[in-house]
Amino acid sequence: MRIIAFVAFPALALTLSCAADLMPTAQEGAQVYADNCTACHGPRGAGTGRLTSGQTAPDLTRIADRNGGEFPRARVLSQIDGYGHGKVARDAMPEFGLLLQGESVPVEVDGVMTPTPRPLAALMVFLGSIQKG
Ligand code: HEC
């Protein structure tokens, strides 16, 4: 019966499957962070001091503070996934290509809804939630 309902109402099936695509929570991102980032950025994002590479992993609770009070989503996403490179030396922070796998969720980046791998989106939400000052 349920299958018939989905065949008859494909829009309904689509709506239901989209429910799973909702934006991840900060808590989900905290887990991804704990699994990948604490070694350099510290358990609470405040950094760990000098790394063996001689570099310092920045305090991730002050990203917005360093950016005139605005959390720069696009920059943060590209920093993590490795597409950005930008000011970051390639070997300073690993590219988290693995995070690119899995389902995508729509994330608003600079006013545009951008399909973003869920673990990456979760990290962004988490980092946004720990901003200070
Ligand atoms: C091997 C150490 C290392 C690991 C692991 C690491 N990072 Fe980094 N990260 C760095 C360093 C070093 C920088 C600064 C590079 C620079 O500014 O040149 C940085 C910079 C950043 C920035 C930019 C901050 C800003 O103010 O622009 C973000 C965001 C960030 N890391 C997030 C993460 C996240 C999220 C993870 C886990 C998925 C992670 N990092 C894992 C070393 C690391």
TrEMBL record:
GO molecular function: electron transfer activity; heme binding; metal ion binding
The entry's keywords: Heme, Iron, Metal-binding, Signal
Signal peptide: 1-19
Pfam families listed in its UniProt record: Cytochrom_C
Start and end residues of each Cytochrome c domain: 24-116
Protein name: Cytochrome c
Species per Swiss-Prot/TrEMBL record: Pontibaca salina
